[in-house]
Amino acid sequence: MGDPVTTAIIVSAVVGTATVAYGQYQQGKTAQAQAKAQSAWNLYNAKVAQRQAEVERAATAEDVRQQKKRAKTLLARQRAIIGATGVEMEGSPLLVAEDTAAELAKEEVNIQLKGARRAMGFESQSILDVSKASAAKARAAGFGKAAVTGAGASILQGTSTALFRRGQMRGDF
């Protein structure tokens, strides 16, 4: 191979190149693993948000059921009180009953709208989390390719540098 100095320089260049290449490869693989973990975490959050939307829908349905029950009870009590007074259900008593029924119907609609709005918020969060997971998964694939490409580039650069130095020491250049 030649003199010991030339050999030491070439060995040093090869070891340095290998170390740099390995470091780049490991760095890329670490970034890939982190991106995969982020993707998994985003998918988990999407499932949680979807479950929260389902729970919200069930809670809203129960709130509506309870409100309807209260409305029926209130209207029945109102009719009983009006009936106990001996007043006929026409004119002002009828208008009061109609107004009460309309207000109770509005309350039911408001409960449904609020619940639907909260459920849609959770569903939107779920969609956003799925999108984030997809982006993180794509980044993971890119990091894996970058790890291999970076390591390969370092090896090629190191090899050419070592060969150039060897040529310089031999007097070829």
Overview in brief:
This protein has 173 residues and is mainly α.
List keywords for this structure.
mainly alpha; 2 helices; 173 residues; single chain; 92% helix
Blueprint of the fold:
Elements lengths: L3 H81 L7 H79 L3
Helix pairs in contact: 1-2
Describe, in plain words, how this protein is organized in 3D.
By secondary structure, the chain is mainly alpha-helical. The chain has one domain (4-170). It contains 2 helices and no strands. It has helices at 4-84, 92-170. It is rod-shaped, with a radius of gyration of 37 Å. It starts with a helix and ends with a helix.
Oligomer category: single chain
Choose one word for the global shape: rod-shaped
**Mean pLDDT over the full residue set:** 88
List the domain count as a whole number.
1
Helix content: over 70%
Poorly predicted runs: none
Q: Which strand-content bin applies to the residues?
A: under 5%
Structural class: mainly alpha
Main sheet, how many strands, which sense, barrel? none
Rg value? 37 Å
